[in-house]
TrEMBL record:
Pfam families: Sortase
Protein name, per record: Class F sortase
InterPro entries, A to Z: Sortase, Sortase_dom-sf, Sortase_F
CDD domains: Sortase_F
This protein's record includes keyword Hydrolase: yes
SUPFAM superfamilies, per the entry: Sortase
């Protein structure tokens, strides 16, 4: 699987993930890869959320693939290429910031209207915890 946002995000590989030992969504260790919430909807599903998450940046490798989400204009198209090679296009329609402790549980829904959700870090960085305070969440609707 891979995600591309023309003009804003190079084609980035995606790995299926579930929860880590703390119960949070596991994100690939490599800042050059994204995680797809494998318990949610697959790309192109008629229902549910295709949830992709990745690092904003890393001390070793610099900017992560989702750093550009802060500047992606509404209406931009994002394309997810599924494991079978089919391409699914979504139009970016909203951007929200949530404290990490208050990330909406509905993002992990396997039902409901089809949508793409992209999640990365934002806000203040705590160097002692090696973590950002907030999450940036970008929403997309399927393009038919």
């Amino acid at each position: 699987m891979a995600l591309t946002i023309r003009g804003h995000l190079r084609t980035t590989p995606i790995d299926p993930v579930t929860a880590d030992t703390a119960g949070a969504m596991a994100v690939p260790k490599s800042p050059g890869r994204l995680g797809w919430w494998a318990l949610g909807a697959p790309p192109g599903a008629a229902h549910g959320t295709v949830l992709l998450a990745g690092h904003l940046d890393s001390a070793d490798e610099g900017a992560g693939p989702l750093e550009a989400l802060h500047d992606v204009p509404m209406g931009t198209r994002a394309q997810v290429t599924a494991a079978d090679g089919t391409r699914h296009t979504y139009r970016i329609v909203a951007r929200r910031t949530h404290p990490k402790s208050a990330l909406p549980a509905g993002l992990f829904a396997s039902g409901g209207a089809p949508r793409l959700v992209l999640v990365t870090c934002t806000g203040d960085f705590d160097p002692d915890a090696h973590a950002y305070a907030d999450n940036l969440v970008v929403y997309g609707e399927p393009v038919t």
